Amino acid sequence: MIQKFEEVKKAIIEQFGGEVVCAEYTNLMQPQLHVEAANIKEVCLFLRDDSRFFFDQLSCLSAVDTGVEKSKIEVIYHLYSIPFDVIFVLKIETERGDGVIEFAEVPSIVDVWRAADWHEREAFDMFGIKFSGHPDLRRILLPADWEGFPLRKDYVEQEFYHGIKVAY
Known about the structure:
By secondary structure, the protein is an alpha/beta fold. The chain has one domain (2-165): Beta Polymerase, domain 2. It is 22% helix and 29% strand. It is built from three helices and nine strands. Strands 1-2-5-4-3 form a five-stranded mixed sheet. Strands 6-7 form a two-stranded parallel ribbon. The protein has a two-stranded antiparallel sheet with strand order 8-9.
């Protein structure tokens, strides 16, 4: 797996330059390549369209709130190449904002993989991440008038929702 990871990393650096790669985490079960958030869509398009890799599937898009102290939100993309049976993980970071007025914002990859539509909506719903260029960014799991984003570390659960006690 590390050999394929190194091959993909090298191709990304050749295509976009070394400054697009922020870090790499090869000591994990699934190695991750941390790239600049501003370049995520172009990197994903490259990995999808390059015949050496053909990452034709977005298997998962998830997010992690690093907390108020670090003030970052990470978005992790699990890519899969069906013909080559290869998994590749990309990660980006962005400022988390306060989730009320200021929001984390990253480019949408819906134009790259249609599956990103619901994945990005879930990340928006739970973390308040704005995916710029998303065609229909609205809540998907919670009611449209829900207050806050439940998977943020600073989330404060509302006591009542339409007269119904929220906490058990």
